[in-house]
Design a protein that fits this description.
Length: 280
Amino acid sequence: MTILRTIAEVRAHVAGARKAGATVGLVPTMGYLHEGHLSLLDLARAQADHVVMSVFVNPLQFGPSEDLESYPRDLERDRRLAVGRGVDAVFAPPLAAMYPDGRPRVTVDPGPQAGRLCGAFRPGHFAGVLTVVAKLFGIVAPDVAVFGAKDYQQAVLVARLVIDLDMPVRIALAPLVREPDGLAMSSRNALLSDAERVDATALSRGLFAARAAFAAGERDPARLAAQVSDAVEAADTLRLQYAELVHPETLEPSPEASAGDVLAAAAFAGATRLIDNVRL
């Protein structure tokens, strides 16, 4: 498997794959892979002949007080895991390759959908996400790009980016992958203390309880969200940031729960921010 460091190397590599008649899939990541990431690679492998995975911890999507410096990194481990899933190339650029002039002067405006849910608490986050995604699409020019359902708001915004800016990329959404105890897989889980790791499962338990309540006939969004807040409040090391039921495409609040709606939530386990969601 090839490790690519520069934009020129990526473009030459992809040109070679296309010359051989291959379709190209892209899986953007920030590295420190877990089984959730690997499921994205499997989906890309199933939908494209040639798979490129990017590993880049994008500073544009971190706020001043967020965990950019402590975000876990291990490129050699990522490389080994990617090889095992049939990845053809890893694009792991240094910061200077992606942002040679420092912070870019032109960025992507993610629109009003980015001001809700996670975006309400992380101003500028989704502008940073969509800017780096747009750059990766321009560099790799994939036929298909795979994103995970755990970052549901991100996936919706990326899909909107492609539609509104007429990008010739098909977006594939991979299901959320969980640990055996229900915790949504995340690179940030490695930052949890033992006590925080135990308490963190309260977030998914609350979401599962809300989904069960909906299946039993509950249609009040506030009561469904309360299932999450009650579960989180019962855990010593957790602090709920939000829990909200939204339309799966517009991300607007649902006045009454309907099948297909998404209940999204975020909580802090100590200093580590966790996100999760379920679809009703």
